[in-house]
Specification:
The complex is a heterodimer of chains A (232) and B (359).
Chain A: H1 2-16, H2 20-53, H3 59-69, H4 74-85, H5 100-124, H6 128-136, H7 141-151, H8 153-168, H9 172-178, H10 188-198, H11 201-227
Helix pairs in contact in A: 1-11, 2-5, 2-8, 2-11, 3-5, 4-5, 4-9, 5-8, 5-9, 8-11, 10-11
Chain B: E1 3-14, E2 17-28, E3 32-36, H1 43-50, E4 57-62, E5 65-66, H2 70-74, E6 77-80, H3 91-95, H4 97-101, H5 106-119, H6 135-147, E7 153-157, H7 165-182, E8 185-190, H8 193-199, E9 202-207, E10 210-216, H9 217-220, H10 227-232, E11 237-240, E12 242-246, E13 251-255, E14 258-262, E15 274-277, E16 283-285, E17 295-307, E18 310-316, E19 320-326, H11 327-332, E20 340-345, E21 351-353
Parallel strand pairs in B: 3-8, 3-9, 6-7, 7-8
Antiparallel strand pairs in B: 1-2, 1-4, 4-5, 9-10, 11-15, 12-13, 13-14, 15-21, 16-20, 17-18, 17-20, 18-19
Helix pairs in contact in B: 5-6, 6-7
Classes of the chains: A mainly alpha (232), B alpha+beta (359).
């Protein structure tokens, strides 16, 4: 019990004094996961919207693959990206192994299927009659797509939040391709794992508190989006 | 009136099955054409085909030109569906949506949207989010969204179906005024006879994917062309008769053992026509009235049942007869099952139908 109380007390002190190690890990986590999520939104939302609206042979197979991607084990993605950016790997010339760039790539591969898959579901959930109404109002295909994405913006926001929530909490891929370098690729999850293994529970508690706060914020936004009223 | 829209040999198939086939349907400039039909008749399909929103066979001509570019055509018309289908934006933005899609400048768009909202009596809601509207308000906004476009043809697909009676009556009145003031050519689809009567210049009756009759509203409801149309437009009394004699002025018919005198002439060569007697035109009295009605039959009341604003009285006069009376009349006459009464109607009331539908 004393161990826990001491840990919490130290965590509080580190948070209040804005401990540099905690600050660096938080900042790195936000930069890496934020970048990966933004790129996932930029590519996943259009891809998901297209998947949601189009009808082509093999669409169900593509949707199945995207859905499978939503459950990819982070360590498998970490292994895959590590091989790609390994010095002798296909992208070794980039010299990205043990960098934030490699972490962003790995986290992107984890977040993008989630964003695309949930966007497709969000677009499909928009009233099909609305497409007909937009056509009747003289909308072009591009205008229709833009309006439907805007109408589904709250579920799409949920998709983005789900993507961010998945990568801010993952550890396997980031550890494997980022190497947990202090002040550079050390993020909240990898720092918590390292501090716990060293018995530095105060620091681990402080980092865990911030991580929980971020996850709570993500869920709060998602809940707000889900509870909004819809027009007739 | 010039022909605005001409549909020839229009067909629509779904799942390999033909659900709509029209030989020819014309919409004239400035008229309100009501397409009246029961549920499942293909009314929505017809509107969507006429608006070029779904694939169709046959030809569609708009102002004499073949419709080839669906988008260009759709930008000259407007369609209001059964549900309002508003976007998650303000009422004004919704009303101006079609204008925005056409690239109309913001100021002009707002001005036209406000004017259309005012025509439907919902200008005071302009700043509200669409989700805060009631069903009736939302449907008015969706009609305003269509009117803001100043469409050359306005298609309305049962726009009042989801509203309760008071909201529907008031919305119909506002729509009738807005359409009349704007002079728009309108095609309204409905299964509601009252709506058809309130708004129509002409009525097209659609049953099972086929247009069965197109006529001015006043003649359609008194001169339906066949028993199915008659039944649908509310002529509950369709009775088999035999022609006894016929001259230029009057036809004498035998209905069971009773003689019926009508001014209508039997369909050519038809000795055994069907007689259609609109229930609203039958007068019920306790004794034979001293009126000009040539036809009066004593009968016994089988059933008395309220139907909205009217009371339906089912009689046995030696043949079944249904009359509609007001609640007040039913009260004053104390109409009850088993009572003996007299049903009368003028010779001009019945119309004669061929026993088998032609064509």
């Amino acid at each position: 019990m004393d161990l826990i109380l001491a840990g919490i007390s130290e965590a509080a002190a580190r948070l209040v004094t804005l401990d540099p190690d905690v600050r660096e890990a938080t900042s790195a986590a936000l930069v890496v996961s934020g970048s990966a999520t933004l790129i996932s939104i930029a590519t996943g939302v259009p891809a998901g919207a297209w998947l949601g609206l189009s009808s082509f042979r093999g669409r169900e197979l593509v949707l199945s693959l995207v859905n499978t991607g939503m459950g990819l084990p982070p360590v498998v993605v970490g292994l895959f990206v590590a091989v790609l950016v390994w010095r002798s790997g296909p992208f070794g010339a980039l010299d990205w192994y043990c960098t934030r760039q490699a972490m962003v790539v790995a986290q992107y591969l984890l977040a993008a299927p989630t964003v695309a898959g949930l966007t497709a579901i969000a677009i499909q959930s928009v009233d099909p009659m609305l497409r007909l109404q937009l056509a009747a109002l003289g909308a072009t295909r591009g205008q229709t797509l833009a309006i439907l994405v805007r109408e589904a913006r709250l579920p799409i926001l949920t998709a983005a939040m789900a993507g961010f929530g998945a990568v801010i909490s993952e550890i396997g891929a980031s550890l494997m391709v980022g190497c947990n370098i202090k002040g550079d690729t050390r993020i909240l999850t990898t720092a918590i794992a390292l501090d716990t293994s060293k018995g530095e529970f105060g620091s681990a508690f402080a980092l865990a508190f911030i991580l929980l706060l971020l996850v709570f914020a993500v869920n709060a936004v998602t809940t707000w989006a889900q509870q909004r009223r819809r027009p007739l | 009136m010039a022909d605005m829209l001409e549909a020839d040999e229009l067909t629509v198939a779904r799942g390999g099955r033909e659900v709509l086939r029209l030989e020819r349907l014309v919409v004239r400039e400035h008229e309100t054409l009501v397409v009246l039909g029961p549920n499942g008749a293909g009314k929505t399909t017809l509107v969507q085909a006429l608006a070029s929103l779904i694939p169709y066979g046959g030809t569609l001509r708009f102002r004499g030109e073949l419709v080839r570019d669906s988008l260009a055509y759709r930008r000259r018309i407007a369609v209001v569906f059964q549900r309002p289908l508003l976007l998650d934006r303000s009422v004004r933005e919704n009303a101006g949506l079609g204008l925005a899609l056409r690239g109309v400048a913001h100021d002009d768009r707002d001005r036209r949207a406000n004017a259309a909202l005012a025509r439907l009596g919902v200008a005071h809601l302009a700043e509200r989010p669409a989700w805060a509207l009631s069903g009736g308000e939302a449907q008015r906004v969706s009609i305003a969204r269509a009117l803001a476009l100043d469409p050359e043809i306005l298609f309305l697909d049962e726009p009042f179906a989801g509203l309760d009676a008071p909201a529907r009556e008031s919305a119909i009145a506002d729509l009738a005024r807005a359409v009349r003031d704007g002079g728009a050519t309108t095609v309204l689809v409905t299964h509601d006879r009252d709506e058809a009567l309130s708004l129509a210049d002409r009525v097209a009756v659609l049953i099972a994917g086929r247009i069965r009759q197109v006529d001015p509203a006043e003649s359609l409801f008194v001169r339906p062309v066949d028993p199915e149309v008659a039944e649908f437009v509310g002529v509950e009394n369709i009775l088999p008769a035999r022609v006894q004699a016929s001259d230029d002025e009057l036809t004498r018919l035998l209905l069971a053992d009773h003689v019926l005198e009508v001014t209508a002439t039997p369909p050519a060569g038809e000795m055994f026509p069907l007689v259609g007697i609109p229930p609203d035109d039958i007068v019920i009295a306790r004794e034979t009235p001293a009126t000009s009605a040539r036809n009066a039959f004593a009968g016994r009341i089988v059933r008395v049942e309220p139907i909205g604003r009217r009371v339906r009285v089912v009689l046995d006069c030696g043949f079944p007869l249904v009359a509609h009376v007001t609640h007040r009349s039913a009260r004053e006459l104390s109409l009850r099952a088993g009572d003996d009464v007299v049903a009368s109607f003028k010779a001009t009331t019945p119309h004669l139908l061929a026993r088998y539908r032609r064509g």
